[in-house]
Automatic annotation (TrEMBL):
Cofactor(s) recorded in Swiss-Prot or TrEMBL: Zn(2+)
Domain Enoyl reductase (ER): 8-347
Name of the molecule in the record: Enoyl reductase (ER) domain-containing protein
SUPFAM superfamilies documented for this protein: GroES-like, NAD(P)-binding Rossmann-fold domains
Keyword Metal-binding attached: yes
A Pfam short name: ADH_N
Alphabetized UniProt keyword annotations: Metal-binding, Oxidoreductase, Zinc
Keyword Zinc found: yes
GO molecular function: metal ion binding; oxidoreductase activity
PANTHER family found in the cross-reference section: ALCOHOL DEHYDROGENASE 1-RELATED, VACUOLAR PROTEIN SORTING-ASSOCIATED PROTEIN 11
Homology family: Belongs to the zinc-containing alcohol dehydrogenase family.
Amino acid sequence: MKVVQVVGYHEDLKMGEAEQPKATGPLDVIVKIGAAGTDLHILEGQWADKSNVKLPYTIGHENAGWQVHEIGNGVTNLKIGDKVILHPLMTCGLCTACRFGDDVHCEASSFPGVDVNGGYAEYLKTTARSAIKLDDSLEPADVAALADAGLTAYHAVAKAARLLRPGNFCVIIGAGGLGHIGIQVAKAISAATLIVLDRNEAALKLAKELGADHVVQSGPNDDFVKKVQEITGGKGAEAVIDFVAEGGSTSTGVQMIRRAGNYYVVGYGENINVPTIDIISTEINFIGNLVGSYNVRLYEVVNDLAELMVLAAQGKVKLHTSKYKLDDFQKAIDDLSAGKVRGRAILVP
Ligand SMILES: [Zn+2]
């Protein structure tokens, strides 16, 4: 089968050939891929030290299937031909974290597209636990990026929304691939006043269309911080959700948090440099976000991917995608690097 591989970091991807995967374990599921997305940071090697993946390997970690192609003999929740979306992680189901439904912290997980072969291919091997059947009204290409980008955005915004009250302010930094989903989720599940920041005017236009209450263009000087301070009555926002965390967004972002407010880190790339005295004197919190969970986290009921699919089926969250043929993978990556993609770039075989 055809696959798109990382052959070296900071190098162009290559189209190659690989053996079609087979269901060898009882809970294995082979999915014919309907659409797949990925993340430029993976190509830049930012995960290389954490994943220890051997090159070359097939990327693509946001995977939706046209259909289940083959199942192991222990699989009971799916049948051949089902349309599915895949939770990005393959998890054991047996460790303490998995038993809490907190699969993101599984002690024996693998991550297709990051540390094992992913979905920029015709077929992908995953497990029964990772596959969620799609509502008939949803098409794989329309929801593929919801599997990771959307799930991550939902996870962070839902976490913030559990604390946000009407009259509170929520700042979203970045209205791109994740941010544009975060905006819709915030409007669907929270009554907080939503302020969206982006450097790009077209992204802000989209943010406004998606329901942002205020949009503020960020830029090289710090005037936009003052604008956010004005909107929030000089006090800052209860929640700042940073989908960027690059190019100085954290240093300006932390100036927008209210006393005892929360800074949700979703994007990554730069360090947060905050004097510890500022953290203790204002009791601000920094909260990391990785993908999303299925079920129960301690006392909170969260079922991020399933809840997000409900919002998608209700039409409350729509992905803005640019679709590319699998053969045009390099154009997709180039357009993404050049900032030409609004929303998320998706490869369709
Ligand atoms: Zn586990």
